[in-house]
Write a structure and sequence with these properties.
About 95% of the residues lie in helices and about 0% in strands. It is mainly α.
């Protein structure tokens, strides 16, 4: 027959075993939750990297388009300036000829 002390010791041993079991379960659950959180973070990082890459490609494409438009605009302005200069050549030639003639005739 167990004495009261023996029963108390037995109950204490059971309580310690249950406590250890609960700690082990809690630790396992914490490890599982940590692993799940790491997986979620890894997926979030992966999605963020993909989004950054997509936006970077879009920005590069836009920059190339802007550069192409700017070059085309500059080319058009240059062509227009050249055409204006060519149109003005006869007028400038007449002005120069008039000045030369005036200076030779003593009118200038």
């Amino acid at each position: 027959m167990l004495t009261i002390v023996d029963r108390v010791l037995e109950q204490e041993t059971k309580a310690r075993a249950l406590l250890e079991e609960a700690r082990n379960r809690a630790e396992a659950e914490r490890a599982r939750a940590d692993a799940e959180a790491e997986a979620i973070l890894a997926e979030a990082r992966s999605q963020a990297a993909a989004l950054v890459k997509e936006r970077l490609e879009r920005a590069r494409t836009e920059a190339r388009d802007l550069e192409a438009r700017a070059l085309k605009d500059a080319e058009n302005r240059s062509r227009s300036a050249l055409e204006d200069a060519r149109r003005r050549i006869p007028d400038l030639a007449r002005d120069i000829a008039d000045r030369v003639l005036d200076s030779r005739l003593g009118n200038g």
